[in-house]
Amino acid sequence: MKDLLNKYNVPAPRYTSYPTVPLWDTAAWSQQAWQKRVTEAFWINGRELSLYIHLPYCENLCTYCGCHKYITKNHSVEAPYISTVLQEWQMYLDLMPGKPILKELHLGGGTPTFFSPQELGRLVAGILKDCETQSDTSISLEGHPSNTTVEHLQTLYDLGARRLSLGIQDFDPKVQQTIHRLQSKEEVAHITQQARKMGYTSINYDLIYGLPRQSAATIAATIEAVGHLAPDRIAYYSYAHVPWMRPAQKSYEHLLPSQEEKLEMYLKGKELLGMIGYEEIGMDHFSLSQEELYLAQREGRLHRNFMGYTTQSTQMAIGLGASAIGDTWDAFAQNEKDIKVYQQLVNQDRLPVTKGHVHDEADLFFRRQILNIMCAGKTVWGPLEMDRHGLQINWELIDELRCDGLISVDDQSLTVTLLGRQFLRNISMAFDARLGESKRAQPSFSQAI
User: Fold this and answer.
1) How many CB atoms sit inside 10 A of residue 22's CB?
2) What is the C-alpha separation between 179 and 64, in angstroms, rounded?
3) For residue 267, what is the DSSP state?
4) 235, CA 20 to 30 Å: which among 49, 142, 192, 265?
């Protein structure tokens, strides 16, 4: 296993989208084309949609973080930002000739709990008043354990939230101090217990391996502590060292573990998660066997979008807020990243999308193959599709993956083996017809493992 991990630990996209974001257009991107696709997708998808709302503010900089954020302790920014997001939502409602059916709403960041409970309540209530919801509508939020309050949880619970995700990363004080992400076990335990007492049915912890000052011992201690709290889901991510994008990461490069040490953390973490009852779900995710995400994988209902793995398989997702991304299946659009410019565009009654991509036939074929690999661990194609797109598949890589026992292949399908489940990013690269373009558009992706 270590030999294979070393061999395939190469720079690779995470494939939260295909094509990857560096290839999306700016100069030729048409706001009018995006508006047309939103209206068409609304009917094609039976009025069903998912919503992601980006809340970009944080009081302190967590140096490991690769998200789009703005650091401030000035909370007067809250009300204007929420008002802008609701104004942007109204522009989307004007494009939809009917009442949308909300399948999923996720508050991400940044730090959503930077905002007061009152402002978050105003935001979610403002969204819900114009939507139909159903018994399986999922409302979730990300929270920092150190500033998420019972009032935050109660306000959102009363509006339908049942899923909470907490960023833990590592409980070791030295690791936390190095990455500027401080929270105690007691804080995490308190907010977890309060959420469960209130009625939240799914709690997720984010853990990261490969951080500065981290070791297999700190990973083991963190997972032991996590096991006592028994979250329903765990995301076990590889630290993405991208100092050309996040200069603050340069400050601790000399404290990063070696590749061999990072691989040891990966293997140790997975082993320990299995020992305390967590099942692996797709890539980087684990859940208890009675959890909805696990059941969705077993039943072939697992889906993946910019919010991560989900049980809601809508093909239309609207992104609200600075830097947020929308998806109509046949096109992507990303909002302006600069918060002030984003607000200016919305105040001018303009959708703030400034970058996007419209898929051609080949893009849709390869997008489907990669999504199938990521969610189901297998994919199929027809002879006509192979005639049209087969030459763009990296058959040399597929043959190498097969020889290493990571996949099985026949004329019309590919299946990921049990061993191959560790290498979903590498397997997906075989179906990335634009990988050469991606490498030219961006200096390097993060390592696959």
Assistant:
1) 15
2) 6
3) H
4) 49
